[in-house]
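Example S7 (structure tokens).
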């Protein structure tokens, strides 16, 4: 059977809207019906929210449903699930895992978080020390994770832990799905420079994870994690935005609406950053087109690098453009938000929050190495830990 084309997808979207009118259908019920109709991720397999259609046809469905006033699944709130957990489960999960997790993930009934980074294993993620020890049909997990977005609202987490300390660090890791409501999972807020506690630290004490919640073979968690990380960098740096979307939008609007703030130097810097933001946007569109052929590659690291640098430079320019007003900060309230809203907040928030862009999703220094070695083919940096058992590494 041939994959559906654009006309077929429009027909199926029309059938969905006729059977479940958005104006009179409960939001969650509509989203479940959309998933079951294969119109959630059209490129996913039939029965798992898709129709085995080309990824490039997803905008056709999205436009049809948006024009009819259909609800979306609030993708910013469930971005970790959509951008990281889902493609990893699709690539490495069992049939049972795919059926159990993908539908409530896409609908937004279950929020996901990512238990990767640790206090002693951030940039060098493979050095992680959280242990998972086999106990019959379960794994007992002990350790600490940090900088965990959405852990305070998440039901599930993607987790990597060390299952064999006697082999080199990349080979002794396994990948699990962790129930955040299980005994032994403790989530503590981390208050940031913005005043909010968007991130968390997570303590795992004797947490029992069934072996049925393992993704991929034992000891091959690093390979599974690479799928997560490459998708993460694309979702951070390569999201689809319109021209003057993202961080360049607010500063461009301020420039047009406040001629009293303009100077020649600021004008030149704004022009340069506007062009760079547009180049990055178009490069992201090209990257998404390449995804039609398969999973993302290391090129996503370059996009994420550009995203971090541009956000920091643009937000710095905006604060300077506003002069004294740029020194104001609207709200220092301690709260634990469900999502990050760059464009809905003031310039001070954007300036402070963008400082984290060069850390989250892979530090810029690590991503530079990835681009150099895996994209440009430059010689790898010397390493003295490649063939050393993890337990013998100095820490």
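Recovered sequence:
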């Amino acid at each position: 059977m041939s994959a559906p084309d654009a006309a077929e997808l429009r027909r199926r979207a029309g059938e969905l809207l006729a059977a479940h009118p958005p104006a009179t259908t409960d939001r969650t019920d509509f989203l479940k019906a959309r998933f079951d109709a294969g119109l959630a991720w059209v490129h996913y397999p039939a029965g798992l929210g898709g129709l085995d259609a080309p990824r490039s046809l997803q905008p056709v469905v999205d436009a049809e449903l948006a024009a009819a006033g259909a609800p979306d699944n609030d993708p910013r709130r469930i971005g970790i699930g959509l951008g990281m957990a889902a493609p990893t489960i699709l690539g490495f999960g069992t049939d049972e895992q795919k059926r159990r997790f993908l539908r409530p993930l896409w609908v937004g009934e279950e929020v996901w978080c990512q238990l990767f980074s640790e206090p002693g294993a951030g940039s060098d993620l493979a050095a992680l020390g959280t242990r998972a020890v086999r106990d019959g049909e379960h794994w007992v997990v002990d350790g600490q994770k940090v900088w965990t977005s959405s852990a305070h609202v998440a039901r599930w987490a993607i987790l990597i832990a060390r299952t064999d300390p006697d082999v080199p660090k990349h080979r002794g890791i396994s990948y699990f799905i962790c129930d955040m409501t299980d005994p032994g999972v403790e989530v503590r807020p981390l208050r940031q420079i913005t005043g909010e506690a968007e991130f968390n630290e997570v303590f795992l004490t004797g947490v029992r994870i069934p072996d049925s919640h393992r993704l991929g073979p034992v000891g091959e968690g690093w390979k599974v994690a690479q799928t997560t990380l490459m998708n993460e960098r694309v979702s951070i740096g390569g999201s689809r935005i319109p021209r003057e979307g993202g961080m360049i939008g607010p500063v461009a609007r301020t420039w047009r609406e406040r001629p009293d703030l303009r100077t020649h130097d600021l004008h030149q810097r704004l022009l340069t950053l506007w062009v760079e933001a547009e180049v990055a946007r178009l490069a992201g569109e090209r990257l998404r087109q390449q995804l039609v052929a398969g999973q993302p590659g290391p090129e996503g690291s370059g996009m994420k690098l550009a995203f971090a640098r541009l956000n920091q430079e643009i937000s710095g320019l905006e604060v300077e453009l506003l002069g004294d007003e740029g020194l104001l900060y609207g709200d220092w309230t301690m709260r634990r938000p469900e999502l990050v809203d760059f464009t809905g907040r003031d310039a001070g928030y954007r300036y402070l929050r963008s400082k984290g862009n060069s850390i989250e999703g892979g530090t810029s220094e690590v991503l530079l190495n990835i681009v150099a070695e895996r994209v440009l083919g430059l010689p790898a940096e010397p390493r003295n830990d490649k063939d050393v058992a993890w337990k013998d590494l100095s820490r």
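Notes on this example. The mean pLDDT is 92.
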